[in-house]
Amino acid sequence: MASDLREAASPSSPLIAVEALTRHYRMGPQTVHALDDVTVTIRRGEFVAVMGPSGSGKSTFMNLLGCLDRPDAGHYRLDGQEVAGLTSDELAAVRNRAIGFVFQSFNLLPRQTALANVMLPMVYAGVGHAARAERALAALDSVGLRERAGHRPTQLSGGQQQRVAIARALVNAPLLLLADEPTGALDTATSREIMALFQRLNRRGITIVLVTHEPEVARFADRVLQFRDGRLIDDARQEPEVAA
Amino acid sequence: MTAWDAFRSALDSLRANPLRSALTMLGIVIGVAAVIAMVAVGAGARDQVLRQIASLGTNLIMVGQGSIARGGVKLGAGTASSLTEDDALAVLTDIPGVVVTAPSVRWGLQIVAGNQNWGTVLFGITPDYMDARDWSVAQGRGLSDEDVAQANKVVVLGQTVVRNLFGGGDPIGEPVRVFSTPLTVIGVLGEKGQNTQGQDQDDVIFVPLSTAKRNIPGMAKSNPRFIHTMVVKMRDGADMAEAQAEIRDLLRQRHRLIPGQDDDFWMRDLTEVSATRDASSRALSFLLAAVAAVSLLVGGIGIMNIMLVSVTERTREIGLRLAIGARRRDILVQFLIESTTLSLIGAAVGVAVGIGTAMVVAALAGWPTLIRLDSVVLAVVVSGLVGVFFGLYPARRAARLNPIEALRHE
User: N or C: which terminus of chain A carries fewer CB neighbours within 10 A?
Assistant: First the structure.
């Protein structure tokens, strides 16, 4: 699946092409337009912040980009491939190989070492046992935590835990890093460190889409999408502040 | 996700709650241990019975003197002196499938050797009797046709008699006396142990049939050809019921019994004893199966319960696994392997406890126990199936979780 995506890629084509994307929820007699006719294109190497108040549709947009949910209408082409019509197993493969997730609450397995946590996506990618540790160590190295590989999450600070989670998101070399409020559980200084890490990764070429409601976080991105009531109301490029 | 990955993850999550895992396994442990231990005790008892039955000899029909009725009063077995050596000969020649008929007389008496004496049972027999009842000779020789023909004053002693008369000494060639008749010991019988009724089969002495009739006072009575019992040995695979019917007809005819008149002999198929034992052990097996089924069911419900709790507790983990690329089947397999690991570890512990219990029972109660490999394999396989069956519902629930909601779960 992932190799198909990469073969289909041409440097000029957009990584994400979303067209009239719509998602409704039925709550009793009412229909909630969680996402209403959103069209947007994101190119490779962009660092995009998605902003909006709660209920604005930014989380729904994020879930659709992350292939965790399916749209009711519209198109979503990831790296040139239409993913709206894929089966559940095919979506799992896309999530596994093309997308890396970073969450507000880290979502590390508490009883596993940092290394084992980072190896987890490779378990589902069918990577052989021998290669797993090597690749996981390389990913931990890229977030500066190689020497903490044997530590459990409880032995790590919040910032370190989030960096382990970022290493986990990177380990299958995804096309896209999706971060949902990644600094929401961290203090200001640590948040800045994490944003500096995102900027470093972005400079190395990885596309990042980050959901946040904090303007202080969004200013490190080079493009900001504003959502309100399920609609995309603003799409602005900006000169990002350099975190470190 | 490979099965090995799933197994490692299963062990990990079981280690996370060791007490809970242990308590969950308890149902399976008790079920499996009970089955293994009870099958071991049952199989041990059955094995002992089978060995005892085999010691009686196989394919045997015993025919004995019956009672006679005088004026409505039935006297005891053996009061009719109608059974004769000629009957034995007739059975051998006229009934198809008969290998050997061994006529015998028996008498309870004292045997004296030097200053020792011992109360035992004397059998007056022919060499065929030893064949039919599968007696072996441990020392010296058995009785020969010549001994019978010449009424030689020789005797073969059972192990119990040898122990009581000679202690550890060698009895061969020693003189003994029964009533006033001197006999020479020519052999010692191989050991048989107790029969199914708990009687000591080794407390016997064998003399030639002719010697017994000639030298034991009152033995010959009015009919010098009379015998107490005959053992009829059928060939392997013979229809024992049909043979009995044929023997009955023949003897009734020879004894000139009119229809409606009671038999003046009794007859018993020694394999009937084993059939009864077989039936009772089959009933025991059904009972065991019921006990096992109930405890495995209870154990299985315990596993299902704890797996449901585990799925709820680990909803976020499931959401994460789905987000990073687990297919629903991976989640299903992971939880199935976890429940099966739980039940199989329980089964392994249960096998160990069951074997231990069987050994303790053997040591303390002195019962023979026999660990049956098939019971171990069956218990483990059934436990594994219990783990799969009762793990299926929780695993499906885990696999069907919506990843978005699962990730938001607190």
Answer: C
| Residues 6+ away with beta carbon under 8 Å from A238 | A219, A221, A222, A223, A224
Amino acid letter for position B273? V
Q: Between the CA of residue B93 and those of B98, B224, B240, B250, what are the distances in Å? A: 8, 21, 17, 11
- Please, which residues have CB within 8 angstroms of residue B398's CB and are 6 or more apart in sequence? B311, B314, B318, B331, B332, B334, B335
CB-based contact (8 Å) between A69 and chain B? Answer: yes
Contacts of B362 (CB under 8 A, 6+ apart): B44, B368, B369
Is pLDDT larger for residue B80 or for residue A222?
A222
**pLDDT tens for residues A133-174?**
999 999 999 999 999 999 999 999 999 999 999 999 999 999
φ and ψ at residue B190, rounded to 5 degrees? -70, 155
Q: How far apart are CA B251 and CA B231, in angstroms?
A: 14
Residues 6+ apart with CB under 8 A from A159: A186, A190, A193, A194
Rounded CA separation B206/B140 (Å): 13
List the single residue in A with minimal CA-CA distance to B400.
Answer: A88
Taking 80 as the threshold, does the pLDDT of residue A213 lie above it? yes
Q: CB-CB: which of B13, B324, B327 is closest to A89? A: B327
Beta strands in A14-160 (DSSP E): 16-27, 30-42, 47-51, 73-78, 81-82, 99-102
Widest pairwise Cα distance in chain A: 55
Q: Which residues of B touch A95 (CB under 8 A)?
A: 322-325
Q: Which fold has domain A44-67+87-237?
A: Rossmann fold (3.40.50)
Q: Which amino acid is at B100?
A: V
The verdict on A95 touching B (C-beta cutoff 8 Å) is: yes
CB contact under 8 A, A96 and B321: no
Indicate the residue type of A51.
Answer: M
Q: Which of B5, B21, B322, B324 to mutate: most A Cβ within 10 Å?
A: B324
Residues of B in contact with A93 (CB under 8 A): 325, 327
User: Is the pLDDT score of A244 beyond 80?
Assistant: no
Token couple for A57: 């549709």
Two tokens at B319?
């959401």
Instruction: Look at A103 and B407 and tell me if their CB atoms are within 8 Å.
Output: yes
A 195-234 residues with CB below 8 A of B?
A: none
ipTM confidence: 0.92
Identify which of B97, B98, B101 has the alpha carbon closest to the alpha carbon of residue B89.
B101
Chain B residue closest to A129 (CA)? B5
Interchain CB contacts (distance < 8 Å): A and B: 60
If residue B103 lies in a helix (H) or strand (E), which one and from where to where? strand B98-113
CB contact under 8 Å between A111 and B12, yes or no, is yes
**Phi, psi of B264, rounded to the nearest 5 degrees:** -105, 30
Q: How far is CA B260 from CA B247, B256, B266, B328, B408, in A?
A: 17, 12, 16, 80, 92
Note whether B404 contacts A93, CB cutoff 8 Å: no
| Token digits of residue A228 | 């309100």
In the predicted model, residues of chain B with pLDDT beneath 50 are none
Phi, psi dihedral angles at B6 (to 5 degrees): -65, -40
H and E: helices and strands count for chain A: 8, 10
With an 8 Å Cβ cutoff, are A68 and B327 in contact?
A: no
Task: Check the CA dihedral A144-A147-A150-A153 and report its sign.
Answer: negative
Determine the residue type at A237. R
